[in-house]
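=== Discrete structure encoding ===
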Amino acid sequence: MELRDVNELADALRLELGKAVVGQDRVLDEMICVLLAGGHGLLEGVPGTAKTLMVRALARVVGGRFRRVQFTPDLLPSDILGVSIYNTAAGDFVFRQGPIFTDLVLADEINRAPAKTQAALLEAMQERQATVDGVSHALSGAFTVFATQNPVEFEGTYPLPEAQVDRFMLKILVDYPSEDLEGRILDRVEGGFDDQDLDSASLREVTTIEQLAAARLAVRSVRVEEMVRRYVTRIVRSTRSMHQILLGASPRSGVMLLLAAKAAAVLAGRDFVTPDDVKSIATPVLRHRITLRPEFEIEGWSSDHVLHELLNGVEVPR
């Protein structure tokens, strides 16, 4: 697949998703970046901001197999991975696959399950395989997780372990729509749209799993000049020296930023990455990979605020 074909695919995804989701263009673009770069996405926002709807709509237009897992406090790792069951007729154990054996998984309200259950996704997200009772089982080559979570201040939520949250390429913040867009949502509902019935939005599949795999290979071929690669490195290393940050970004963060910037470049219609591509996608790549010092959190600083200062302070290659 040529890069121009990937750009056309991204435009088609935008168009179809816009039939179901009103006014979340930035969020949808970041989700498409995750999909094309072969990563996983974490969507955070208050209840009722269409997080689940966006993932369901994306699964519909991409095609392939889709499973939704509702995370709850009593969810067990075996409910996600699967379990070995003794078959009396065969006299042996048979593995019954869990819901992660699919192409796209929606981990809904992932931070309502305890850390042990959240951690069941670690190996799957990193290595696209699941190990149960000492036996490894391969997952789909297109395996992608989109998880939703409520802000951690909400009752009944658990913070995601650092190792778990680091597996997500982007942490995508979902905010309230503007007054005008919120009015358009009501207009759509009055016109017959039902967010529980995506058929009412007339969504169509615009790609296949095989085409998506080809698109991901094409995205990998996007050129990144050495000066832009060094810019990525300077951004990541700067997170380790800012006095507001207790724990900076890991080397994996640089890899994720590079891959996400390639996808951002394709969405912009280019076959090469610019410093602006890196800067535009750096905050959603890094916001969940840094830990602020408690005294700055008390003063009201956020990861996004700190990263804004950092990006303004790192020299941009010309």
